[in-house]
Amino acid sequence: MSGDQPPREAKSQSQVHRVLAEVVESERLPGDHHRLVLHAPIIAQQAGPGQFLHIWCHPPDEIDRPPCAAILRRPYSISRLRSPGKVELLLRVRGVGGRMLAAKSPGDKLDILGPLGSGFRYDPSLRTVVVVAGGSGLAPVPFIVEYLTGRGARVLCLAGAKDDEAVPFGVARPHSGRATLPEIEALGAEVTFVSEAVEGILITQVVELRLAEFGDEATGMLAIGPRAMLKRLNEVTDAHIPLQVSLEERMACGVGACRSCVVPVRSGDGHQYKTVCRDGPVFDAGEIAWELLDT
Amino acid sequence: MSAPDLTLRIGAMTMNNPVMVASGIFGYGDEFMGLADYGELGALVLKTVTKEPRAGNPPAARTAETPAGMVNAIGLENIGIEALLREKLPVALTYGTNIVASIAGDTPDEFAQCARLLDSSAVAAIEINISCPNVKKGGMAFGVDAEASSEVVSAVRAATSKPIIAKLTPNVTDIAPIAKACQRAGADAISLVNTFAAMVIDVERQQPLLAAGTGGLSGPAIRPAAVYRVWQVAKAVRIPVIGMGGIWNANDALEFILAGATAVMLGTVLYADPAAGNRVLAGIRDYCERRGVTRLSDLIGAAVTQL
What we know:
Shape of chain A: globular
Radius of gyration of chain B: 18 Å
CATH superfamily of chain B: Aldolase class I
Radius of gyration of chain A: 19 Å
Order of helices and strands of chain A: EEEHEEEEHEEEHEHEHEHEEEE
Number of helices of chain A: 6
Largest interface: A-B, 37 and 41 residues
CATH class of chain B: Alpha Beta
Number of domains of chain A: 2
Helix content of chain A: 10-25%
Number of domains of chain B: 1
Largest sheet of chain A: 7 strands, antiparallel
Number of strands of chain B: 16
CATH architecture of chain B: Alpha-Beta Barrel
CATH topology of chain B: TIM Barrel
Number of strands of chain A: 17
Structural class of chain A: alpha+beta
Largest sheet of chain B: 8 strands, parallel, barrel
Oligomer: heterodimer
Distance between the termini of chain B: 32 Å
Distance between the termini of chain A: 38 Å
CATH superfamily of the largest domain in chain A: Nucleotide-binding domain of ferredoxin-NADP reductase (FNR) module
CATH architecture of the largest domain in chain A: 3-Layer(aba) Sandwich
CATH topology of the largest domain in chain A: Rossmann fold
Helix content of chain B: 25-40%
Structural class of chain B: alpha/beta
Order of helices and strands of chain B: EEEEEEHEHEHHEHEEEEEHEHEHH
Strand order of the largest sheet of chain B: 3-4-7-8-9-10-15-16
């Protein structure tokens, strides 16, 4: 780690770009998952882990025509950077927007805004980073892990989901030992995976069981997933471990203007609202007014 | 043929063209910076502010997507007029086009206090939001009543010499008397429509989807209903009418103009296409050139003269 690095390196929204990105890979994955790889050099160059893209699901050359469905863009976190100049997205195909995106073929163009939001902040004094991810929060994990291991951090990835279908990666269950996600292990993380369906345990319970391991000052935690999971992590870490959480909320503009996606954060004795799309999606856990946050 | 003349005036505010960004869409101007050439547009209306900052409605959810539209219930969350003047207006002015402030309040006097503060600022005009459906007090409560609308406009008129635009709600039985009352009270223009009162139910939770219970519908779904109300108002008043409601392209904007609007505002479309204003403007210019229209103002109400 270079000595003149700022103490906390953050990728936050500075310049938002609107680009026409070409789809270079479009692959159906098991479950309802879909992989899209987009050629978007300026976004790939500037994006940090935890940031997202706001995608117009219709053909860009039809933007003059008002659509009946999917009139708003769809936010997707960046799953991974692919060189040169490519970004990978892992979608869970559920609504109309996801279906439209999953129907894209290589050569199609997408109108995207990005990179948006304030992503995970990296503190170089941390030697170990615990990445806790649940359900839909698994999609951006490869980017987070690669980013951290690339900076010399030891990364423990504790991942959970309802069942294996809910995971956009392959799940391996060796005869002896714990379940794992080989694709995440290949990026240099030590991985523990649990599903409610097979292991019958929540990832937050795993965190609680292993909490003693994370007690030293050089360990931090990044979490992304359902709000109930994030809320529980905030309780069990109890401010002893620096915890950053990535939140989701319905959004419209994606750039902090419409105030749709606000969450309550502490402010003096009370609270104020901050936007998930611009101030977040990543917040310090201590900043969130958890008691006011819907889960 | 020379380029068509698209210029117009709203009171003392001169505009290069009729394409405006509607209030509540564009934040305070800084959020969208760099995503399009907003300085090319006729005017930009900033998000409504009140005398004091407001937290707005509870979140989760404040917005719901609906067929060809969206329902929102932000509830006038805003930073307050003083922060607007201090922090946001100087940035918005760098766009180099008319910046219009939008104000709201619980009482006519609160509107007037905001207007007084704006009077010495560099805003080109003031829009009076008496049509927000998402607040319990003020907002639409004024805009559904001719006398109450008139009181607010009069109070603002007494507080400023800036051009005043009264923004009306479509959620009334007859909008024309309200528009006339605003004109009589000194408004320089009428803008309409604000959103249509609306509701979305989450069937699984068996609860309203929006935390506020109800909201306002915008987007292409409301366009024909908005054109109708613009026509009703345009034939009732002498002052300029600014039409809005679901405009997506130049054709939509021209519908409003041909029904009687002098200018148009874009809203929901900007979330899909941040450069929609520039696209609509280029399309209006193309239309004029193709049809040999030398002055856009010749088209105002041209489709409804026989009605």
